[in-house]
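agent: user wants the structure for Syntaxin 6/10/61 N-terminal domain-containing protein from Prunus yedoensis var. nudiflora. delegating to structure tool.
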Amino acid sequence: MASSLHQWESDPLFAAAEVVQDSADRMESVFRLLLHELSLIQGDCPDLKLLVSIYYHKRDLATTLETAKWQLEDFERAVSFSAVAGKPQLREDVISRHNQFIRAIREQILYVEKNLEGTSIGDPMRNTC
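agent: tool returned. relaying tokens verbatim.
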């Protein structure tokens, strides 16, 4: 495990991968917070503070989701460029590790997008009393 971490840390694209991972983590955190808040809505007259919080977290999630997608696309371009440029430090295992990372982040993004579609998070403010 330690050698795997060392391989990543010595990777020239490590800093870019860290930025992508941070964005994906933030997206996941806001998504889970939003789902939790949605589970707290009870009855026909939910708490106004809760509804406002849901509204802001929906906006935050939209922003973090798009940021994660954009940063992943940027990272993919950097990986493709590095592979084509034939930099000597980029071997097959490095390219494979990058592609594995890209797939994992893409799955995380798709999971959030899919669950957003399946979750009724419309406009919580319209149900206020």
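agent: one observation worth passing along. The chain has one domain: 2-123.
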